[in-house]
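During data preparation, we tokenized the protein backbone, and the record follows.
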Amino acid sequence: MPKPSSFSIDPYVVDTLMQDLVGHDHRPSAFIVYLFFLRRCGQQAGAVSQASLAQIAEGTGLSRRAVQDAIGLLRRRKLLGVSADTPTAVPEYEVRHPWNETRRRAVQK
């Protein structure tokens, strides 16, 4: 049996983002979808993953409607970028890490 690959999460995701999405926004589904893409894309900035709503729903255990709502919130919060060549194409998702950008800008000043 193959050993599962390791998966690490930036402490900010657990310490701050989880409380914000689950506690403040009352949207645990958004946190679950964010983790789904974080696992698929990794911590690498600019990495993308292509997935249909059905694949995301199956991978998270959420309904398609919950996935759609979660993606909408993550897009509004600029935590997830979504692009597709045509309206019917399977989208590409980019996990964004805005807290890293803030830290990077503060260090550069």
About this structure: Helices lie at 11-24, 28-41, 53-60, 64-76, 98-108. The mean pLDDT is 87.
